[in-house]
Specification:
The protein is an alpha+beta fold. The chain has 4 helices and 14 strands. A 5-stranded antiparallel sheet has the order 2-1-8-7-10. Strands 3-9-6-11-4 form a 5-stranded antiparallel sheet, with no helix packed on it. A two-stranded antiparallel ribbon has the order 5-12. Pathway: Amino-acid biosynthesis; L-methionine biosynthesis via salvage pathway; L-methionine from S-methyl-5-thio-alpha-D-ribose 1-phosphate: step 5/6. It comes from Didymodactylos carnosus. It is an enzyme of class 1 (oxidoreductase). Keywords: Amino-acid biosynthesis, Cytoplasm, Dioxygenase, Iron, Metal-binding, Methionine biosynthesis, Nickel, Nucleus, Oxidoreductase.
Length: 188
């Protein structure tokens, strides 16, 4: 099951954990707008109806699988692309089937939160949220990807603060409390 923490600032080896302070799933969702579900990998077929309901509710009409491992074509180049901070104009949805990896996303204070995903973890990264991905030291992850309509996977590298998806993300997900200092992500 997922593990989550704030990252330290050392990125000499991006595939290392870089743990500063662990946090729980709810705190991560509140601070980023990321949504999380768990489908036990041994029962994925019996939980099929829950997954189907999620797909129907969110209008996911297309799915495929991605396998990230050293034998894939241009592995090192793809890792650099995945790990470059970016956003998308649509949600990014991943259900981990095998292996493990790290999705890093920015919280409302622009600090990195690392989400260590394992089989059964499904995460939805909101459109317009800065994030990146890297497999962990095992160098293997197989995941389902879900899309609304035909798949469009276009990374929009940072800075992209003027992109409509970024503006919408900030407008929809960040609520400033009237005490002036505290901001929290809304909407999970």
């Amino acid at each position: 099951m997922v593990r989550i923490w704030y990252m330290d600032d050392n990125l000499d080896d991006p595939q290392s954990e870089h743990i500063e302070r662990e946090i729980d799933t709810q705190e991560m969702c509140d601070r980023t707008g990321v949504e999380y579900w768990y489908f036990h990998p041994d029962h994925l077929q019996s939980e099929h109806s829950s997954l189907e309901k999620l797909k129907n509710d969110r209008h996911y009409t297309y799915e495929d699988e991605i396998v990230v491992q050293p034998t894939m074509e241009n592995y090192e180049t793809k890792l650099k692309t995945f790990f470059k901070e970016h956003l998308h104009s649509d949600e990014e949805i991943r259900l981990v089937l095998e292996g493990s990896g790290y999705f890093d996303c920015r919280d409302y204070n622009d600090r990195w939160i690392r989400i260590n995903v394992f089989p059964g973890d499904l995460i939805i990264l909101p459109a317009g949220m800065y994030h990146r991905f890297i497999p962990d030291k095992n160098n293997f992850i197989r995941a389902k990807r879900f899309f609304v309509g035909e798949p469009i996977w276009v990374p929009i590298n940072r800075p992209a603060d003027d992109h409509p998806a970024r503006k919408s993300y900030l407008e929809e997900k960040v609520v400033r409390y009237h005490n002036g200092n505290q901001t929290l992500a809304a909407g999970h």
